[in-house]
Every structure is written in C-alpha cells, then in structure tokens.
Amino acid sequence: MDEEDKRSLEEIHDYWKNESLPEHYLRHSGRSELLYNHINKYIDESKQVLEIGCNLGRNLNYLYENNYKKLTGIEISEEAINQLKKYHPHLIDHGEIIHSSVENIIEELPTNQYDLVFTMAVLEHIHPDSEWIFKEIARITDAYLMTIEAEKSEHWRIFPRNYKEIFEELGFKQIEEGKCGKNVGLQAYTIRVFKKV
C-alpha cells in the first residue's frame, strides 16, 4: 500500500461510523446461512455467541431464527444500530447489542464469557494500531473462534493478515479452514474455525 493511502485509526473508525450501509447487508442471507451451518457443527443453541461487527444484525437474526438465543453483538455504527432496531427489534429485547468500537469495549468483557466468537469481514478492517484486540478476543472466547475474512486483499481500509498464525500464537488450534465460494459473494474470503486449547 502506498504511504499516501494509509489512514489513521480515527479515519477508519469515522468511515465505519458513517458509511456502514446497513441496508446493503439485508441482501446477503446466503452468507448468514453459511455461517450458521458452520456454527451449528460446533455448538448447540444453549451457548453464548458474540459477533464482533454485527452491523444491522443479519447474522445474529439468522442464528436467532434457528433457536440461538444467547446472542451479543458489537457495532460501531449508530445508523446500523438504528436499522437493527427497525428490522430485528427482538435482538435488542432478547440479546445484547453493544454500540461501540471494539477497541472501546473489549477490555470490559469478562474472560471466557462466550462459547463462540465470530467475525465476518470485520477483522480485515482493524487498523494495525489496534491489533492488540486479537489478544482480547482470545481472552473472552471460552471455546470456539470463527473468522471469515479477506486475508490477502489490501486497500486503505483492509489490512491483510493470516488469522491462523495470529490465533494459534494466542492459544487456539485451527480445526477447520476453507474458502467461502462465489455463491455467497465471498470468493476472496477464508473461513477458519479455531478451538481454544
């Protein structure tokens, strides 16, 4: 990436606060089904689940409709939260939706609180100055961690990383890896599932 293309952490946050395009995310239910099919292999409906970067809650809603009720989401965009309240109000009533950047809340979350933590196209946007949150994600995850991220793409708001290397150094073992495929529009994305050891 050219030096002139680099942006600050504040610029990245401002983008996602103001340009999250929540209604765009309503259209991609196939992605939520892909996610559910992987989650359902590893945990049952009684478990605690956290999505980092939940936008308007499409993924959490799909899990809710499939009997997962202990759901938490973190979202930086106020507009996305407003759309979540409009389209999926039950997630507010029956779950926990945290309006915050992950940097501002993750240290407050209890250790081993969530049976499964997942991200979909979110960690790729974490600014290099905030890579300390990966250790915090490891801390709050009790059993499983799932990442669906574009690991090789590069853009002013996308930072390439190998999440297998990152999370195996933080006490996890990768137990599944695959490509997401064109049918859900995530052909550049890698899905990884980790188990805490």
TrEMBL record:
Family annotation (InterPro entries): Methyltransf_11, SAM-dependent_MTases_sf
Entry superkingdom: Bacteria
Any one GO MF annotation of this record: methyltransferase activity
Pfam families tied to this protein: Methyltransf_11
Entry keyword set: Methyltransferase, Transferase
Methyltransferase type domain span: 50-141
One GO BP annotation of this record: methylation
Name of this chain's protein: SAM-dependent methyltransferase
Native organism: Alkalibacillus salilacus
Lineage, opening ranks: Bacteria, Bacillati, Bacillota, Bacilli, Bacillales
